[in-house]
């Protein structure tokens, strides 16, 4: 079993990111974002610190999985590298780097990741279909090859959830919030089960659900919106929790109450510019805000209770009729 700590140690830092992969477009401002400025805080930074976050209107939490709840972004990353490092070499293309993962693949549905990376190298191959064998030279064949590598690592190493994410998850559940997982991965259920946290979620919208129901994947907000609907909550009462560029874009694009960016390597400035409202390194930084919101709700409830149990309002004195 690989511990989250060990996997964390392998995570790329913002410094590992190259300027060329960090060029993104802010869906809210349409401004070009250059994450090579990571480390400096723009003067107009609008993201709240976790200490200032007001969670009082939030009744549902929509969690991404890989990189937010479990360190499986690393497992995906390695599986993609096992696919594309030899593949690009064989095609005489620019070598595959970790930066390519963040720029073209992270958070997106499997075959969208393949298309996006191949497009970046000007390589065009047939689409094929999901039944393609892993050694077929098609978009689906390559995706299936990557999936074999992913499942092999998962079986060999297992997965442990991030302890801080589990602490946060349990705190929001205890505070009465509803929770869902929203993942592009078709392997979300086995990953949640391997991490022992599958029983905590009442709703799971994963790559299988999206493909079955024809829901657009991240960076479109649709899978998050679908999860809010299944929870029976308006999107404005839900918070999106994401670590990937495509996922934060999806959250910013929708009308959600809050977008929390977890910095696992994308970089704080890039997350902020993509539309994250609050940025943390670990989710337990938001525990004080959860407790504050729960205390305020309890306070409201007991005040309402006091009002209903207080002695009834006396009948008004009969008005003297001076007419
Ligand atoms: O191939 P899967 O398991 O369906 O996953 C698709 C994608 O799922 C996302 O959650 C990951 O961030 C990506 O790295 C991954 O490629």
From TrEMBL:
Biased composition regions of type Polar residues, renumbered to the chain = 20-29
Record-linked SUPFAM superfamilies: HAD-like
EC number per UniProt = 5.4.2.6
Gene3D superfamilies reported for this sequence: HAD superfamily/HAD-like (3.40.50.1000), Putative phosphatase, domain 2 (1.10.150.240)
> Where are stretches of biased composition, namely Low complexity?
295-306
Region of interest: Disordered: 1-51, 295-323
Name the domain of life.
Bacteria
Alphabetically sorted, this entry's keywords are: Carbohydrate metabolism, Isomerase, Magnesium, Metal-binding, Phosphoprotein
Q: What is this protein called?
A: Beta-phosphoglucomutase
């Amino acid at each position: 079993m690989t511990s989250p700590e060990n996997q964390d140690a392998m995570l790329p830092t913002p410094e590992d990111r190259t300027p060329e992969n960090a060029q993104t477009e802010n869906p809210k401002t349409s401004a070009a974002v250059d994450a090579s400025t990571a480390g400096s805080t723009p003067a107009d930074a609008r993201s709240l610190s976790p200490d200032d976050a007001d969670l009082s209107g939030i009744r549902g939490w929509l969690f991404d999985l890989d990189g937010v709840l479990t360190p499986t972004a690393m497992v995906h990353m390695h599986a993609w590298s096992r696919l594309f490092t030899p593949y690009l070499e064989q095609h005489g293309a620019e070598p595959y780097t970790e930066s390519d993962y963040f720029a073209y693949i992270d958070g997106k549905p499997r075959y969208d990741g393949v298309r996006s990376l191949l497009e970046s190298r000007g390589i065009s191959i047939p689409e094929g279909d999901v039944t393609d064998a892993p050694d077929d030279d098609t978009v689906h064949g390559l995706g299936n090859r990557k999936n074999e590598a992913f499942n092999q690592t998962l079986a060999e190493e297992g997965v442990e959830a991030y302890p801080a994410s589990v602490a946060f998850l349990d705190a929001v559940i205890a505070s009465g919030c509803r929770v869902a997982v929203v993942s592009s991965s078709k392997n979300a259920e086995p990953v949640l089960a391997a991490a022992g946290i599958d029983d905590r979620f009442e709703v799971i919208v994963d790559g299988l659900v999206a493909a079955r129901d024809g829901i657009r994947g991240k960076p479109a907000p649709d899978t998050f919106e679908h999860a809010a609907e299944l929870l029976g909550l308006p999107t404005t009462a839900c918070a999106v929790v994401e670590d990937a560029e495509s996922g934060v874009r999806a959250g910013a694009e929708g009308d959600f109450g809050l977008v929390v960016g977890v910095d696992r390597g994308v970089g704080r400035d890039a997350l902020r510019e993509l539309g994250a409202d609050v940025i943390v390194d670990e989710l337990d930084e938001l525990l004080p805000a959860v407790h504050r919101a729960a205390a305020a709700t309890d306070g409201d409830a007991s005040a309402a209770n006091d009002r209903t149990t207080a002695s009834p309002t006396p009948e008004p004195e009969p008005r003297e009729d001076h007419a």
